[in-house]
Amino acid sequence: FLCDCSPSEIAAELHRDCNGLRVDWSRGLYRYIETLTGKSIKSWKDIVILLAEYRSHTPVDIPKLMISTTSLGKIDCCEAVDASVFYGRETELTTLKQWMVEERCRVVAVRGMAGMGKTKLVSKLIPSLQTEFDYIIWRNLSHAPPLIQVLADLIEFLSDKQDKKLENWRVINQSIKMLTQSFISAREKSRINSGDQNLPFFHHQIQPQLIAEGIRELIKCLQQHRCLIILDGWEALFQPQTFAGKYRPGYEGYGQFLKQIGKLNHQSCLLLTTTEVPKTVTYLSDVQATVRTLTLGSLGQSASRLLQKRGLLNEVKYSDLIKKYNGNPQALQIVSKTINQIFGNRVDEFLARNSQLFLGDFRERIAEQFNRLSTVEKQTLLTLATVETPISLKNLTNEFKSDSTVELMKALESLERRSLISMIQGLQDTFYQPCPLIQAYIHKNLNQKKLNDLLLPHNSNVIIAEEVAIAKVQ
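Below the sequence we write its predicted structure tokens.
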């Protein structure tokens, strides 16, 4: 896009004043490229030249961060994260590449709890896929964009410029963006609760036929070219305070979109990252060999390299530290900083003084995921957290303060799909236990009164505050 259009053409496309657009770029885009390349921009044409020079002198991981058209294909991965520092996950990288390249999977979901490195894993994978796809496009869904906007964006990027329908989708895309921005501005001015992220009313009025047409046009692109679409943060589309996988009002079309990508014939792949597995993926993976899910668990002993990089001492204790934090890379990064600053890099001192898990700033990530749970899921986790060892369904039912075994089974299934509990298969029974990090969060951040309130049967109106007194569960 940047290589093919002049500033006046881009301004016309965006319905902007060209002079105003140049001012915005001089403050943002120009400064970014000057910082990136270390050279000054004197004219618009310098951008293409500087970026080309920069790409030729940078490691293979860097091109994924840019929009480019090369002999290898067209790439738009500006929203990918920096994966230049990366530890382990060789098996996962090999598996993903095999599914996408050799087995030609249409849909691949990378799932795992917060902090496990899903986004970074996919970012690391991109350079090895550049010769396998004609187009690679990465989009972040954390702000929950409406489906029609995502479809228009994808079609615009993946379509041939000669396609007559492309202009219509460009107009739709720009209109949706402007309407959404107007809604956000109005909401901020009227001080409407910013936590209400449901779509504005006009999105609900969009005819289903328009979305269906968008999916058909996208499928055509996926059939004509070998495309890789990466959608990061799929969980933002789901309704909080309910079982995993239920879409927010106005976002149900994403389920149909996923279903069509998984079922219809094409030569492309949709790769998504999520903390909650979509029900469509679970269903299709049972009936379609071209739909797969990769669960991202502990980083294992590869995390030792991370700890060494942070300068931590007592390498013999690394395994204990990794096990305590479930091999979660982000949690280990955070606790490593504490060990650096407070315990003089001594892992043994830290472990000796912290019988309970210290979460630090990672508590906010856990709180965010915990607060998305339904009341029954919270009840189930809190019950599991009071038991010292893994517990069977039968014994859990006896402990669970509710007369609904069906609800308990739904909660267990939902928690497993969120990667918040693990299941251990015994000879006759399946045993359940919470992830150590979520268990530590419960023990340290929920006082006894909150626990008692939440464990009351059918207490669907309980809302757990993020900031409560720290008290150990008795």
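The longest strand covers residues 135-140.
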